[in-house]
Amino acid sequence: MIRVQAENFDVGAEINALSEGNTAIGGICSFVGLVRDFQHTKDDDTRVSAMTLEHYPGMTEKKLAEIEEIARQRWPLEDVLIIHRYGRMEAGENIVLVVTASAHRKAAFESAEFLMDYLKTKAPFWKLEEDDQGQGKWVDARDADDHALTKWEKSQL
Amino acid sequence: MIRVQAENFDVGAEINALSEGNTAIGGICSFVGLVRDFQHTKDDDTRVSAMTLEHYPGMTEKKLAEIEEIARQRWPLEDVLIIHRYGRMEAGENIVLVVTASAHRKAAFESAEFLMDYLKTKAPFWKLEEDDQGQGKWVDARDADDHALTKWEKSQL
Amino acid sequence: MKVLYFAWLRTKIGCAEEEISLPENVKTVADVLDLLRTKGDAYVEALGEDKVIRVAVNQDYAPLDHPVKQGDEFAIFPPVTGG
Amino acid sequence: MKVLYFAWLRTKIGCAEEEISLPENVKTVADVLDLLRTKGDAYVEALGEDKVIRVAVNQDYAPLDHPVKQGDEFAIFPPVTGG
């Protein structure tokens, strides 16, 4: 299941809801990404206090659904949940949640990591960081994320 | 932080509590292991309806603390939580929870998987499965778990 | 054809969405980008050769030689930075 | 020395914990296992050469040549199956 929304979500409630009543599940892996309140160590000392995530309505839902489908084909999953927010978020707020449930531990871990790597490089979201002076700056894509994806394309899973 | 307990735990509440107020956290990975209600496909058709986890009080706490310490040395972690239950549990109940929080996604994923692999092969717990006839059977250790651990010993992390 | 701009492309060009007519000779993604570059300095700068951009046609990533037609939804944006 | 048994070792031997005295010549984990095998058929069966068992001395895994002394906590159990 996928959800694209502006509202925050309750990580705990989402995970609890997913596992309820399905005794075929042996393991649930989850990952939540949060807005980090970090120093810009490269350029200056301004703190990032908030950010705005722009997205491409329509394409976002399409890509997330595709990513879920690929994961379900690769791993024996009992359930999959992807929630991605858009709009303005402050430091400490949730951005994204991925939850995978499987009979097997390895399938749950691998598919959750795969989903996050794929989301980071394929889902049409763009971060505009806001420093404590209220200045916005579009975040550049990271090579590290592309490399993370390459892992899945090369591996014989 | 480690906890060894007979009582069930609330996965959602534990994850939420861990992230609260620490804006240095960029990602939280969690894994919860549950009692699966599976068929014994090898030997017979009896269902496993419950199990009892015996443990070695004292050594369990010592091993879990060691495992947490190793993970903290290997990865830049903001927080670590390991909860492992003992005693009787029915199908669908939580057995174990691992949560790792880091500034970085990869560190959170890798350390959580490492902790689970290590737990499975080093923490002194033994499963006694109970079928729907009330018959108990000690579960044999799986080679797959030892192999999962070997991965971490060989890898240059 | 509907053209959408996102992130810094939207702010540079100064518009989120516009409707353009495709001349007969515009058949690929590359042709559309060339056509847009004739629309003024802001377009030339935003869609310059030195800029790393991505194109989606009908909400799927599309390479430069991907065919386009009048009814398509054509989107231009920077490499994604979600998650 | 306190000896602890877990899982099927506990059920086979029929006891969870016992106190044994170490004769002078018992110096290693292997020596303790040999000593225990003299205590009866249940011990011989549970600690047989064909059985895969683990030993912990003072709550750390210990190999067969690990030294032991009177005050140690000595535990015998099957490979673990938690998680």
> Beta fraction of the residues of chain A?
25-35%
Question: What's the architecture of chain A, going by CATH?
Answer: Alpha-Beta Complex
Total number of distinct structural domains of chain A? 1
* Radius of gyration of chain A (Å): 16 Å
Give the overall shape of chain A.
globular
Gross geometry of chain C: globular
What distance lies between the first and last C-alpha atoms of chain C, to the nearest angstrom? Answer: 30 Å
- The CATH topology of chain C comes to Ubiquitin-like (UB roll)
Q: Helical residue percent of chain A?
A: 25-40%
Domain module count of chain C = 1
SS-derived structural category of chain A: alpha+beta
Q: Which protein chains make the most extensive interface, counting residues with beta carbons within 8 Å of the other chain's beta carbons?
A: A-B, 38 and 38 residues
**Overall number of strands of chain C:** 5
User: CATH homologous superfamily name of chain C?
Assistant: Beta-grasp domain
Give the integer mean of the pLDDT values of chain C: 94
Largest sheet of chain A: 4 strands, mixed
Tell me the major beta sheet of chain C: 5 strands, mixed
How would you concisely characterize the structure shown here?
With 157 residues, chain A is α+β, with helices and mostly antiparallel strands. Chain A contains 4 helices and 8 strands; from the N terminus they run βαββαβββαββα.
